[in-house]
């Protein structure tokens, strides 16, 4: 059995990710590409199927119909679940 890779000694606390994530969520995600964790197909967010009548907004893969992400906003806060997304790609803004 192989030992897990050594992540090294340098690490920061998770707060260091807040700035880079704010950069991601400030972008227009309509141009985002989603890679489905279930079947591996990729496509623009706009090509996915949105089901707005569930307790959360549910986005399903157009190829396999599995859930790729869910978003809910209510008195408990904002929740963004994307276990069905292998990769979310958004083009970097032009500088
Ligand atoms: Zn799929």
Describe the 3D structure.
InterPro entries: DUF6510. It comes from Amycolatopsis acidiphila. This is Hydrogenase maturation nickel metallochaperone HypA. The protein is mainly beta and 95 residues long. It has one domain. 8% of the residues lie in helices and 34% in strands. The protein contains 1 helix and 7 strands, in the order αβββββββ. It has one helix at residues 18-25, and strands at residues 33-36, 42-44, 49-51, 57-60, 67-74, 77-81, 85-89. The chain has a 4-stranded antiparallel beta sheet, with no helix packed on it. It has a 3-stranded antiparallel beta sheet with strand order 2-1-7, with no helix packed on it.
Structure at a glance:
The chain has one helix and seven strands. It has 95 residues and is mostly beta strands. It holds the Pfam family DUF6510.
Mean pLDDT: 90
Bound molecules: zinc ion
Q: Over all CA atoms, what is the radius of gyration?
A: 16 Å
Spatial shape: globular
**Span between N and C termini?**
47 Å
Query: Which spans of ≥5 residues are poorly predicted at pLDDT below 50?
Result: none
| Strand arrangement across the biggest beta sheet | 3-4-5-6
How can the largest sheet be summarized?
Answer: 4 strands, antiparallel
Q: Helix fraction?
A: under 10%
Beta-strand residue fraction: 25-35%
Enumerate how many helices there are, as a single number. 1
Q: Total strand count, please?
A: 7
List the secondary-structure elements in sequence, H or E. Answer: HEEEEEEE
Q: Give the class from helix and strand content and strand pairing.
A: mainly beta
Tally of individual domains: 1
Organism: Amycolatopsis acidiphila
Protein name: Hydrogenase maturation nickel metallochaperone HypA
């Amino acid at each position: 059995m192989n030992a897990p890779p050594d992540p090294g000694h340098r690490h920061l606390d998770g707060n260091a990710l807040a700035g880079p994530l704010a950069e991601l969520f400030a972008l227009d995600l309509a141009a985002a590409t989603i890679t489905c964790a279930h079947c591996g197909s990729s496509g623009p967010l706009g090509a996915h199927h949105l089901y707005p009548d569930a307790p959360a907004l549910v986005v399903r893969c157009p190829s396999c119909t599995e859930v790729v992400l869910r978003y809910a906003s209510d008195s408990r806060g904002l929740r963004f679940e994307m276990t069905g997304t292998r990769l979310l790609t958004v083009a970097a803004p032009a500088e």
